[in-house]
Amino acid sequence: MKQLVQNVRSGHTQLLEVPVPVVGPGEVLISGTLSLVSLGTEGRLVSFSKSGLLGKALLESARIPPLLAKLKTDGFRATLRAVNTKLDTPVPLGYNHVGRVIGLGTDIHDLQLGDRVVSNGPHAEIVCVARNLVCPIPDAVTDRQAAFAVMGAVGLAGIRLLSPTLGETIVVVGLGLVGLLTAELLRINGCRVVGVDLEPSRIRQAQNRGIEVINAGEGTLEGQVRSITKGVGADGVMVTAAAHADHILHQASEICRKRGRIVLIGVVDLKLNRRLFYEKELSFQVSCSYGPGRYDPSYEQQQNDYPLAYVRWTENRNFQAVLALLSTGQLEVESLIADEVPFHDYGRIYAHLNTHKGIAYLLLYSSETSKLVSKVVDHDMRPTRHRQGRIALIGAGQFVRTTLLPTIKGADIKYIVSAKGLSAASLALQYGIDRSTTDYHQVLADAEVGLVWIATRHHLHATLVLESLAAGKHVLVEKPLALSAVELESIARVCVTSSGFLSVGYNRRFAPFALKMKSHLGIVPVQVVITVNAGRVEANSWVYAPDQGGRIVGEVCHFIDLITFLTDSLVKAVCMQGFGNGTGDGSILLNYRNGSTGIVHYFTEGNQDYPKERVEVFAAGTILRLENFRVLRGYGFEHFTKTATIQDKGHRGLYQACLESMRAGGAPPIPLDMVFNTSYASLAALQSLQEKRWVDLDY
């Protein structure tokens, strides 16, 4: 199937061949009929993409300080790689999709195959969307009309924040598609609506719909609004404009009456005039997309609806409200459609996206779209080459894009897998990977695949490891190996019978500086202290989801393994001190069987200017200190005091070790007893935190 994306680096809008998504729990698979182009949102993205590097930096100036902090702590090479990765990541276009249901998650019972639905899916022949972002289309509403439901919900969500009452005068600043829909909805609500714009074609469109309009380029806006309202001023202002200018909100505050309300739906600079807001006691609020539930993983991904009695209008119920107005004819949208273009001919719209005079444009999908079923796309057009021991990469998220693939560039990868297809397809094209797919079972059935590299979200690790080992594949899974003792026991049993080896992505033990530290240490017990300035992760991040294990199990295991490597022993007891539920700050104390000790200080509330990782080893009158895998210092050594190089955390070293093990048929790169011991130690740390005691390890 094909999907429309924007290349941020080059500025090109492209149709990519993408494997059909796999429908998961709580999701709906939809074959597209048509989709509505958002000239505003998509136009801004296209304009940003076509600007130069300096222009991009100026438009995204808020990102510069974190970038400078990364440059200071991680170095130029790592920072440049992060910037390039961001620029090379294709951005899906569109969020107004209409089609028919062709697949349902096992837990969805209120939709049927063949139902007409509207969703916030992108411009693609087939989309997979979470149930709470999908809405059935009433019989009285055509597909063309339904395409406006999502954009209408954007305006409606802002109106609900403004809380207009019958007879109030509301000024709508910006008469693009969202502005016109907002104005119409306000009129239906019984308000007197005054539209404001500069563009003659938009002014004419609004006037043709019976909306009172002020040309912002003629006279003072404040004077005209005062004249219309007989000196009172506007009861409320809806700002639906998109412009890098701070005068728009200043004008909004000028035209409001005392104790008026301003709601921002569009994108303008937020420089408020305190004097006006103070003297008039104005209220100001920014509206978030379609309404309550937006960007809440619990609502959008886990399908936990808000109780209607407490949250009357969620984003999905806003979709329903707009569709209801379309079905009764109260909201008319057909006259807004300027053109309808076949999907493959998208360039007719996107070549001049920011200069179109029309309001709304539709992309039309082929009637054959529902017959697209291929979950594998072959990107390698060369003659088939049969060879054994190739790599399959399951997962195409941020870690794979920013760290893994750039590090192992040139690796012989036959497959890359992702659930929705786009990320896998784009990375396959970028790194010369033969095939992208959404079906990992095809990977496990391919005899050419020797090593399966698993880099998905944590809750999938154990299942994929078990299936891959059962298929006789060598397995390298990114940390953590598993999220429970039961999963670890199952994996241990399969390891005994599988012809493939198991390794975990504990890359730091393969870092050049870690190997150098190990070479300086004798066989005496050592004391290791690792301080991790981890930094904050947004509270709604998937890492904190109940089924993902949290940051201790998911990240601290890295550092436990590094201490295990440096001490050359196994953990025998663990104690964790901290606060929270195991996903925040804390210190983990480790006792080893050979008498060594280790401490991992894991902090999320530090400062970004401080090195992210510091490793200190104390042994027999000597000290080694490693800062961010860039600078290693030695104290008490006769011929070593300091060495520095570019940051290398051992990802390529781990990859090379796995290749050697696979080709030689030897032992796994990391001894299995250490792999399982580290996993059990991570789980024991959480148990210790909860039970407030030392926990002994039997493994």
TrEMBL record:
Cross-referenced SUPFAM superfamilies: Glyceraldehyde-3-phosphate dehydrogenase-like, C-terminal domain, GroES-like, NAD(P)-binding Rossmann-fold domains
Domain of life: Bacteria
Cofactor(s) needed by this chain: Zn(2+)
Presence of keyword Oxidoreductase: yes
Enoyl reductase (ER) domain segment(s): 57-364
UniProt-listed Pfam families: ADH_zinc_N (PF00107), GFO_IDH_MocA (PF01408)
Record's keyword terms, sorted: Metal-binding, Oxidoreductase, Zinc
Molecular function per GO: metal ion binding; nucleotide binding; oxidoreductase activity
Protein family membership: Belongs to the zinc-containing alcohol dehydrogenase family.
Name of this protein: Putative dehydrogenase
Source organism of this protein record: Dyadobacter jejuensis
Organism phylogeny: Bacteria, Pseudomonadati, Bacteroidota, Cytophagia, Cytophagales
